[in-house]
């Protein structure tokens, strides 16, 4: 069994990864700005900042066989863009240097489809040049470049991930789920014929573990094979929920203008990436990761979103009371969308 470091181990993906690693018998150290959500005899939870090189050097001095880099800040709520950039970029720089200095053989890092701020009429390949439209996407791209600079020191695997879905995934999804739970109209920009790929969290973790075990360096896009249209996906969740909600399309041009204005006035949780991509097609080509790692996805977009909704419906009261948890483990603030809810 291996000794492994997980950054962002108190977050949504990092927390699931820590659980799986412990279940497999590994010894895990988690570093996060928030305390570890659970205790285990083989888990050391460190509350700390990955920009702290001395802290990382001390942690990694014990001899580790792999690092999983899940830590990432979003510029939401009280987190400023400057703080997000410093954590995502300088934190990755500090982690890469500490990993190299400690002689750890493998680092697996999660990147994002936010490297692009436009839709594609075909699957996106690993060699398509990134075109981020906002600071978070730029920070993830910078992180990729930093890891590439350390390719001679350890096997650096970058997995470019779309939206990660599993039981407990909330954030902006909680807004959709609240509308469905209350039987309100579900508003969709455009006719909903676009396809936007998700990834089931357990499928992503399976790929991370394959990359670590094989020390497979490189950049890989990942995602579900079965990507229904967004109208079909939402309709599936509504039917599974037994909700009276119905889907209503909004004209794309006016809706996007309203989203831009709301963001500019700081009235909405939806930013430039969201209003650019809300009616756009985006899927990753997964040929490379399947061939290199022997990886295969399991759930469709519709299946994983229904699973996430069932968790939300069963835990609404507890979710509403959550404090001091990561952004994806709590419901996003609706902002001006709450006004839309009351006319739905």
- Shape, please? globular
- The helicity comes to 40-55%
Low-confidence stretches: none
Mean pLDDT comes to 95
Number of strands: 11
From the N-terminal CA to the C-terminal CA, the straight-line distance is: 53 Å
Number of helices: 13
Q: What is the assigned CATH homologous superfamily of the largest domain?
A: NAD(P)-binding Rossmann-like Domain
Pfam families: Epimerase (PF01370)
InterPro entries: Epimerase_deHydtase (IPR001509), Lipid_A_modif_metabolic_enz (IPR050177), NAD(P)-bd_dom_sf (IPR036291)
Enzyme class: isomerase
Domain NAD-dependent epimerase/dehydratase: 5-218
Give an account of the 3D structure.
Keywords: Isomerase. It is an enzyme of class 5 (isomerase). This protein is of the alpha/beta class and 344 residues long. It folds into two domains: 3-165 and 197-221, NAD(P)-binding Rossmann-like Domain (Rossmann fold, 3-Layer(aba) Sandwich), CATH 3.40.50; 173-195 and 228-281 and 301-342, no CATH class. The protein is built from 13 helices and eleven strands. Helix 3 links the parallel strand 4 and strand 5. The protein starts with a strand and ends with a helix.
């Amino acid at each position: 069994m291996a000794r492994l470091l997980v950054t962002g181990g108190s977050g949504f993906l990092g927390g699931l990864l820590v659980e799986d690693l412990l279940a497999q018998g590994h010894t895990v150290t988690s570093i996060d700005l928030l305390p570890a959500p659970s205790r285990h005899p083989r888990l050391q939870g460190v509350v700390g900042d990955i920009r702290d090189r001395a802290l990382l050097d001390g942690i990694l001095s014990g001899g580790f066989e792999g690092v999983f880099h899940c830590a990432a800040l979003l510029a939401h709520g009280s987190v400023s863009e400057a703080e997000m950039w410093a954590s995502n970029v300088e934190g990755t720089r500090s982690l890469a240097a500490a990993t190299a200095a400690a002689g750890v053989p493998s680092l697996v890092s999660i990147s994002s489809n936010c490297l692009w701020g436009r839709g594609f009429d075909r699957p996106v390949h690993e060699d398509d040049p990134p075109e981020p439209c906002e600071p978070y996407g730029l920070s993830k791209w910078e992180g990729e470049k930093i890891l590439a600079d350390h390719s001679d020191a350890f096997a650096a695997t970058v997995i470019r991930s779309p939206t990660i879905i599993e039981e407990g995934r909330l954030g902006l999804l909680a807004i959709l789920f609240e509308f469905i739970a209350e039987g309100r109209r579900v508003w969709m920009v455009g006719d909903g014929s676009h396809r936007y790929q998700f990834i089931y969290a357990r499928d992503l973790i399976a790929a991370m573990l394959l990359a670590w075990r094989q020390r497979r360096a490189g950049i890989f896009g990942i995602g579900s094979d079965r990507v229904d249209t967004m109208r079909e996906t939402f309709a599936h969740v509504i039917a599974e929920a037994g909700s009276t909600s119905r889907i209503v399309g909004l004209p794309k041009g006016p809706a996007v203008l309203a989203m831009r204005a709301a963001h500019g006035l700081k009235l909405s949780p939806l930013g430039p990436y969201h209003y650019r991509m809300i009616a756009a097609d985006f899927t990753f080509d997964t040929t490379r990761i399947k061939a290199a790692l022997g990886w295969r996805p399991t759930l469709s977009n519709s299946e994983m979103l229904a699973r996430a909704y069932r968790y939300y419906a069963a835990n609404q009261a507890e979710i509403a009371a959550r404090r001091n948890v990561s952004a994806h483990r709590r419901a996003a603030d609706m902002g001006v969308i709450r006004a839309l809810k009351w006319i739905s």
